[in-house]
């Protein structure tokens, strides 16, 4: 180094602490979400379809064929499931997504029980939670119910659609790799919107 | 003023100086007030007693009231005209009210001026009698400049005597010199506090523009504040109006709200500017304001429209206190003490006081305060020459961390229960539809008892009621407020009422035969029962908005 070259000053110690804190937080978040990492790696590593969710077309009498017809752009992969374990259905069809209704999304999954559609879910990344809610408002109009108290750890906002209801969790949470979910499910006969 | 015509500093401290109590206007005003109250009470009892023929009222109530209030008024008037000597300085020593005995100059070790309680604190050297130190000389009955003059006169004599005895400067003198030197240093580094003036001017200017635009000066409604850019979780999250995080911080819920925030900002803001410089001050102000707004999204702004600069004010106070703690070794002791007992105490008081009020946005206070404290600990002061090179990088880190805090604050905000834009739109629709419905109902009452084939009634039903109800239902259909909002429920009820009235009108208009008329009457009676039930439901709803102050 020549005598005239500028002296490189190191950053203050506070920067080191900040970088260390950010690195450690990132590591903790990643370790806590190891089981989900493959979904994010796929989401970032390969392009997936961007779809418009046909909530109005979803119905409890739909079978796999009808679902594929309603979602032609989605390469659904279907496998049998243990209903006793998931409580949702004996078969599930799923696919990776880049976006649903122009809001960031990770996966879509549809559960069938006895060959009929029992539930549909779009998983939304943490950073897409508000965008997903905005998309639902734009698509489905004003919601019909909201929960103030948590039920099984979640508070929901609910919209009514032709053959069921659509709900999204109100709280995105503090985990940047956590998921929010938009659920479609048939409206139980004679049911009213959930109590506040 | 009862001082000698020649200032003591020019007299060689030998001349006698006296400070006599001033006539306080407050005494005269209070005396007048007490006198008037006494006379009023007496007159009232005289009038009431005379009209009720009860002289006991006059003797039992009126006269004692006159004597008590009149007595107090008299005492105050005496106090007003009485001007005792509060402090007397001579070549030998000082004599004052409040002191047990006159003090000789060589007895006095130090003198302090306690501005808050308007008194001199005289520290006496420990001697054989072990007198308690310090002793207080009350100066409340002197005007502010005279209190300062009294302090300076005493201090000049004490210093002169100490110098003569070879004792050096007093602790107070040393503190004052250090503060003066430090202030001089800060003034040289930051000659003016224009950035603090700019933020105060910005807040006042926005309020003035609002006032000129017709916004209520004392208590604007939450709807108005929302239209002007108040903070609301629904607007930020669902409508993507992130700019509200800033605009809410320059809006205020009335003149008092603005005045309190600006008073809280004025002196600490100027002090912080001198300490950390303009760009860092503006960074602290903006970052605290935004952090306060982001914190508010989780609490107050979930349901209310939140406005005010107090997040930023708390940030400035927090930064000042944290910075003074960080630089406690470099700040003069008196300066350090003043910051903690002034802005520090005010900050704690305002914070605690806010928790006692449901209308205060405490989340914004806490969010702004935490941001300010963090930045105060991080930023490098202007007078810290040893770390001058780190100033920019520390400020950059502060801005980065504050930005991250705001982003995380926004991203983690729950979807709110109150959706302000659709709510206020619905209020506007109902404000129009409600009276229109009332008008149609009242119009219908004019035809009560008339037969269905009455030409005037038929014309009213066709021309006014059916068209009017169709218009109301068209307006109500535009309402986007969520179904759980009372205003949406009210709109739904109004729509149903209009629908029922239209149905009754159509049945009446269509009826031709006596059987059809009879059927129409039966249906109309059933509709009337339904309408009454809906009206009762409507009465039970109270669709009102709220706003919160920061």
What are the salient characteristics of this protein?
heterodimer, A: 196 residues, 8-stranded antiparallel beta sheet, 11 strands, 27% helix, elongated, B: alpha+beta, 4-stranded antiparallel beta sheet, 19 helices, 9 strands, 7% strand
In short:
The complex is a heterodimer of chains A (196) and B (550). With 196 residues, chain A is α+β, with helices and mostly antiparallel strands.
Structure, described:
- The complex is a heterodimer of chains A (196) and B (550).
- The termini of chain A are far apart.
- The mean pLDDT of chain A is 91.
- In chain A, the strands form two sheets. In chain A, strands 2-3-6-7-11-10-9-8 form an eight-stranded antiparallel beta sheet, sandwiched between helices.
- Chain A has helices spanning 13-32, 37-45, 64-70, 83-86, 129-140, and strands at residues 50-51, 77-80, 91-96, 99-100, 103-104, 107-113, 116-125, 145-146, 156-161, 164-169, 179-186.
- Chain A has five helices and eleven strands.
- Chain A has one domain (34-186).
- The radius of gyration of chain A is 22 Å and the shape is elongated.
- Chain A is of the alpha+beta class.
- With 550 residues, chain B is α+β, with helices and mostly antiparallel strands.
- Chain B contains 19 helices and nine strands.
- In chain B, strands 1-2-3-4 form a four-stranded antiparallel beta sheet, covered by helices on one side. A three-stranded antiparallel beta sheet of chain B has the order 5-6-7, with helices on one face.
- In chain B, α5 packs across α10, α10 (278-298) runs parallel beside α15 (391-411) and α18 (486-510) runs antiparallel to α19.
- The radius of gyration of chain B is 36 Å and the shape is flat.
- Chain B starts with 16 loop residues before the first strand and ends with a strand.
- Mean pLDDT of chain B is 90; it is low at 1-11.
- Chains A and B meet through α1, α5 and β8 of A and α15 of B.
């Amino acid at each position: 180094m020549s005598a005239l070259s500028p002296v490189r000053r190191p950053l203050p110690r506070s920067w080191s602490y900040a970088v260390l804190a950010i690195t450690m937080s990132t590591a903790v978040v990643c370790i806590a979400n190891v089981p989900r990492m493959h979904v994010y790696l796929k989401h970032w590593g390969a392009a997936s379809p961007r779809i418009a969710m046909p909530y109005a077309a979803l119905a409890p009498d739909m079978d796999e064929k009808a679902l594929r017809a309603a979602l032609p752009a989605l390469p659904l992969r279907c496998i049998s499931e243990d209903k006793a374990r998931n409580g949702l259905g004996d078969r599930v069809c799923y696919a990776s997504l880049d976006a649903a209704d122009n809001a960031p999304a990770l996966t879509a999954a549809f559960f069938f029980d006895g060959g009929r559609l029992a539930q549909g879910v779009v998983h939304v990344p943490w950073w897409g939670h508000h965008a997903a809610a905005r998309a639902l408002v734009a698509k489905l109009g004003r919601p019909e119910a909201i929960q103030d108290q948590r039920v099984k750890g979640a508070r929901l906002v609910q919209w009514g659609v032709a053959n069921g209801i659509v709900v999204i969790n109100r709280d995105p949470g503090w985990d940047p790799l956590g998921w929010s979910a938009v659920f479609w499910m048939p409206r139980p006969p004679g049911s009213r919107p959930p109590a506040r | 003023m009862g001082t000698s015509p020649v200032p003591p500093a020019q007299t060689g401290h030998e001349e006698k100086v006296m400070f006599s109590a001033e006539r306080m206007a407050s005494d005269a005003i209070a005396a007048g007030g007490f006198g008037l109250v006494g006379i009023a009470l007496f007159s009232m009892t005289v009038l009431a007693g005379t009209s009720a023929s009860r002289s006991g009222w006059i003797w039992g109530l009126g006269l004692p009231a006159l004597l008590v209030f009149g007595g107090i008024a008299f005492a105050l008037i005496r106090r007003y005209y009485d001007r005792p000597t509060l402090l007397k300085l001579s070549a030998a020593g000082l004599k004052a009210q409040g002191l047990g005995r006159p003090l000789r100059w060589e007895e006095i070790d130090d003198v302090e001026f306690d501005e808050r309680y308007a008194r001199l604190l005289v520290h006496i050297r420990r001697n054989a009698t072990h007198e308690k130190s310090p002793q207080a000389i009350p100066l409340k009955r002197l005007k502010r400049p005279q209190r300062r003059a009294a302090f300076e006169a005493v201090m000049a004599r004490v210093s002169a005597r100490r110098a003569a005895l070879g004792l050096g400067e007093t602790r107070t003198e040393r503190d004052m010199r250090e503060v003066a030197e430090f202030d001089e240093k800060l003034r040289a580094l930051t000659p003016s506090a224009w950035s603090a003036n700019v933020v105060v001017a910005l807040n006042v200017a926005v309020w003035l523009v609002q006032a000129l635009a017709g916004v209520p000066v004392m208590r604007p409604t939450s709807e108005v504040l929302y239209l002007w850019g108040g903070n609301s979780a629904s607007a930020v999250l669902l409508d993507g109006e992130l700019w509200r995080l800033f605009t809410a911080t320059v809006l205020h819920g009335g003149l008092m709200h603005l005045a309190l925030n600006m008073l809280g900002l004025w002196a600490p803001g100027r002090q912080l500017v001198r300490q950390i410089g303009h760009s860092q001050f503006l960074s602290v102000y903006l970052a605290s304001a935004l952090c306060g707004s982001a914190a508010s999204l989780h609490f107050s702004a979930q349901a209310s429209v939140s406005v005010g600069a107090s997040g930023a004010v708390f940030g400035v106070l927090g930064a000042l206190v944290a910075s003074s703690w960080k630089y406690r070794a470099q700040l003069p002791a008196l300066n350090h003490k003043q910051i903690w007992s002034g802005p520090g105490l005010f900050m704690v008081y305002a914070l605690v006081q806010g928790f006692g009020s449901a209308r205060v946005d405490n989340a914004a206070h806490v969010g702004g305060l935490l941001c300010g404290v963090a930045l105060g600990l991080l930023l490098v002061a202007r007078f810290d020459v040893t770390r001058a090179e780190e100033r920019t990088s520390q400020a950059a880190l502060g801005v980065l961390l504050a930005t991250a805090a705001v982003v995380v604050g926004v991203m983690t905000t729950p979807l709110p229960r109150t959706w302000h834009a659709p709510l206020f739109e619905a209020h506007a629709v109902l404000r129009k539809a409600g009276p229109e419905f009332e008008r149609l109902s009242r119009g219908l009452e004019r035809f009560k008892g008339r037969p269905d084939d009455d030409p005037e009634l038929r014309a009213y039903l066709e021309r006014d009621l059916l068209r009017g109800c169709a218009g109301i239902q068209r307006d109500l259909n535009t309402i986007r407020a969520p179904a759980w909002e009372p205003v949406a429920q009210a709109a739904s009820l109004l729509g149903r009422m209009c629908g029922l009235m239209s149905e009754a009108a159509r049945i009446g208009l269509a009826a031709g035969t006596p059987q059809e008329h009879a059927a129409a009457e039966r249906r109309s009676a059933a509709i009337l029962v339904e309408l009454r039930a809906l009206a009762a439901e409507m009465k039970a709803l109270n669709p009102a908005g709220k706003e919160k102050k920061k």
